[in-house]
UniProtKB/TrEMBL annotation:
Name of the molecule in the record: ABC transporter ATP-binding protein
BP GO annotations: quaternary ammonium group transport
UniProt key word Nucleotide-binding: yes
Pfam families documented for this protein: ABC_tran, TOBE_2
Taxonomic placement: Bacteria, Pseudomonadati, Pseudomonadota, Alphaproteobacteria, Rhodobacterales
InterPro entries: AAA+_ATPase, ABC_SmlMolc_Importer, ABC_transporter-like_ATP-bd, ABC_transporter-like_CS, Mo/tungstate-bd_C_term_dom, P-loop_NTPase, Transp-assoc_OB_typ2
Species name: Pseudooceanicola sediminis
Length: 331
């Protein structure tokens, strides 16, 4: 349900000379939601985030927050805050003073800004390190300080530009859980740019998939993953095969493909090409022929099922799936 506090992009375009980085985007980011903007490098997602923040001018269109056009306001006046990928902490300031810096620029007295900084540091579980310098912190700790600094101004929208990319895989999973917790506790909108599909699916109430300067598809994370509209979205989100059958193109989830005896009418003959053990399942890529074309098909086979009747590259197999698992793509 749309409210006056939503963030709306209305016909937003960004050009660099003759190059169009973002093309006539219209989208409403629902207040209080966690939204992930995702897509390949150069698709326009970071440019879109920077235009919302005010760190990039718009060429055409409007950015409307809480019913007010903020397109031409400076970043500090927009009601948004941005957490940068590099964290950009001041090396000579303590953790507390880093978090309080924007309040200092607003002219708040030391006691007031330190009280607000301590509140944010407590929220991100960093109050015990408030007197340290950034160089004395781990990457994950620096990330939390940057997050507290972005939140201390109490923005209506927090913008995050690939905030987890510098973290190791284990820490990334832990921190994304903390981001989701914070978003729910604060009740404000988070708009998070990522190129990681697993990150978006884990975090987002809404996924906005961009490609070639436009929004290709948006919607709840499960809907975008399970019902991609286009071949691009199906391939980019991963876990799907794109196959041609009876003159139409379909997406078929890899976990919906299984092996069947080659003689069964429903089985499509194929040759195993690669096998990857991935813990709870085995990823098997096979080559089959449809519509006169060779098509690679990925099957995610449960570990126990695969090893009960293991396959090897070069083996002939029969591939089968439930027709109800086929999802027709737009032409």
């Amino acid at each position: 349900m749309r409210t006056g506090q939503d963030l709306e992009l209305s016909h937003v375009t960004k050009r660099y000379g003759h190059t169009v980085a973002v093309s006539d985007i219209n989208h409403v980011f629902t207040n209080g939601s966690y939204v992930c903007l995702l897509g390949p490098s150069g698709c326009g997602k970071s440019t879109t985030l920077r235009m919302i923040a005010g760190h990039e001018t718009i060429s055409e269109g409007s950015i409307i927050l809480d019913g007010t056009d903020v397109s031409h306001l400076p970043p500090a006046k927009r009601g948004t805050a941005m957490m940068f990928q590099s964290y950009a902490l001041f090396p000579h300031l303590s953790v507390r003073d880093n978090v309080a810096f924007s309040l200092r620029m607003q002219g708040q007295d030391k006691a007031t800004r330190h009280r607000a900084a301590n509140e944010m540091l407590d929220l991100v579980d960093m109050i015990h390190l408030a007197d340290r310098l950034p160089a004395q912190l781990s990457g994950g700790q620096q990330q939390r300080v940057a997050l507290a600094r972005a939140l201390v101004t109490k923005p209506r929208v927090l913008l995050l530009d690939e905030p987890l990319s510098a973290l190791d895989p284990f820490l990334r999973i832990r921190v994304r859980g903390e981001l989701k917790r914070l978003q729910r506790e604060l009740g404000i909108s988070f708009i998070h740019v990522t190129h990681g599909q697993d990150e978006a699916l884990a975090l987002a109430d809404e996924c906005v998939v961009m490609n070639n300067a436009v929004i290709e598809q948006s919607g709840p994370a499960r809907e975008v993953f399970s019902h991609p509209r286009t071949e691009f979205v199906a391939r980019f989100m991963g876990g799907h095969n794109v196959i041609d059958l009876d003159g139409a193109r379909y997406a078929l989830r890899a976990d919906g493909v299984h092996f069947a005896p080659a003689g069964l009418p429903a089985a499509v003959p194929a040759i195993v090409r690669t096998i990857e053990y991935q813990g709870s399942h085995v990823a098997v890529t096979s080559s089959m022929t449809t519509m006169g074309e060779n098509t690679e098909v990925l099957a995610l086979i449960p570990e126990e099922t695969f090893f009960a009747d293991p396959k090897n590259p070069g083996d002939a197999v029969g591939l089968a799936w439930d027709e109800g698992r086929l999802h027709r793509l737009q032409a």
